[in-house]
Amino acid sequence: MRDSLRSINSPCPPVARGLSLTRLQKSKIDQLMGAWEEPEVTKAHEERIPIVAIIQFRQSLSYLNTSRPFSTAFGPASTRAECIHSSEAVYSRLVGVASHLKFDLIALLAIDDNGEVDEEKLKELIRVFRPDREGNLNLLEFAKSIDTVYKELRLLRASVANSSKMDRAFENIINIVFYFLVFLCILAGVGVAPDSVLSPIGAFIVGLGFMIGSASSKYLEGILFILLRRPYDIGDRINISDPLKDTSVTGSPGWIVKDVNLYSTTVIYASTNEEATYSNGSLASSRTINMARSFKAQISCTIRFPVDAPYEKLLIFKKSIEKFILSRPREYCSFIAFRATAVEAHLGYVEYAVYALMRASWQEAPSISQSKADLSSFALELSKKMDLRYRSPPMPVDLTLLNAESKKSLSVDGNEGPNEQRRRSSTFGSMDLNSINAMFNTRR
């Protein structure tokens, strides 16, 4: 009994002492447990904003209207074409005679006055430029990073201008209410009863209230919707839908916000460039999906395999897809899962889905669609290379019995039966995977 209690209270069992998990076993456990992100706890900011910070913010906004918003050394960037041209010139000066730009050179910006590395600034630099796993940046990736910052600057300038316009409109409403109250106070001060002035027009006000009561409530609801909830900004890609219905698992179609005021919202359909206007009151009871605030988009693509495909080949297929995703750190955050979603034995196929987490938000829908298309194309080419491509049976099926001579003639003509197609097996190696990867590297 004492020995059993001693073994329970011991920090490590005798058998497990001196043993440790290998790196492969640890990675296998991490894959089986799945990904997990800690929930962020937002703290309320109770400190007051000093006047100096407000002045600095106004000075920073003044730089957005200049022809060189980044710096004088960077060059002109008043338009997107000038910004791209200046970024190419900066890249040429930084890279010199080398073939790629090292991120170590850009990381020097994270060193403070004391010679220490500012971790927060370094994380921001990594988030903006996203170098590859060797720490290299080519010209296209560098120009794309600068172009992303340029777009954010222009959207910030438009959002600030639109916020100022809404503040002025709200100020006009407050002024009307304020001057009306001042008028009543003046009447009371000179000895005139305010009710004696308002009573003659009271009947008119009551009748007008019945006429515009519903419209006024919608109008007030729209104002509160924009001022309090602030569901979107200028340039955001949004989707308006019924809150009682589920959204699409492949992503919702987007409308880009062009203009916002207290009464209406003007949007442009991203696919056809059509323009529409919503009243803010009609949007208050709808579900508004803001794709600019939907960070790290999750995508999925499905592919079908023959029902008698070897499971070992499916594991190789999964490893190849995972390697394809992890080799593109600028596009993908992580590989999520590869699982069966449907088994249709009577149709001869099993359907699998590949799930991946993107770095971009749904605001960048075109780039996400391109990445999804590349992933689907790679999965298709990989399935053909590994002889895992599913071929649906012809419909209608001919059930006529064939004799031995007819079967022989079919085989001579070159039409293989289903058994012959399953019997063909090809070896899949790293050379084949590299050749498929080369196709998509060229496309990038």
Description:
There is one protein chain. Strand 4 and strand 5 (264-269) form a beta hairpin. The chain has 15 helices and ten strands. It is extended, with a radius of gyration of 32 Å. Helix 4 (80-95) packs across helix 7, helix 11 (311-326) packs antiparallel against helix 12 and helix 12 packs antiparallel against helix 15 (430-443). The N and C termini lie far apart (68 Å). It is α+β, with helices and mostly antiparallel strands and 444 residues long. The longest helix has 51 residues, at 139-189. The strands form three sheets. The protein has a five-stranded antiparallel sheet with strand order 6-5-4-3-7. The protein has helices at residues 2-9, 23-33, 51-63, 80-95, 103-106, 119-129, 139-189, 194-198, 202-229, 280-283, 311-326, 365-385, 404-413, 418-423, 430-443; strands spanning 101-102, 136-137, 237-241, 255-260, 264-269, 275-279, 287-290, 298-306, 332-344, 349-358.
SSE topology:
Elements: H1 2-9, H2 23-33, H3 51-63, H4 80-95, E1 101-102, H5 103-106, H6 119-129, E2 136-137, H7 139-189, H8 194-198, H9 202-229, E3 237-241, E4 255-260, E5 264-269, E6 275-279, H10 280-283, E7 287-290, E8 298-306, H11 311-326, E9 332-344, E10 349-358, H12 365-385, H13 404-413, H14 418-423, H15 430-443
Antiparallel strand pairs: 1-2, 3-4, 3-7, 4-5, 5-6, 8-10, 9-10
**Beta-strand proportion:** 5-15%
pLDDT averaged residue by residue = 79
Percent helix: 40-55%
Low-confidence stretches: 4-10, 12-17, 412-416, 421-426
User: Based on DSSP secondary structure assignment, what is the total number of beta strands?
Assistant: 10
The number of helices is 15
For the report, how would you describe the main beta sheet?
Answer: 5 strands, antiparallel
Form type: extended
Report the C-alpha radius of gyration, rounded.
32 Å
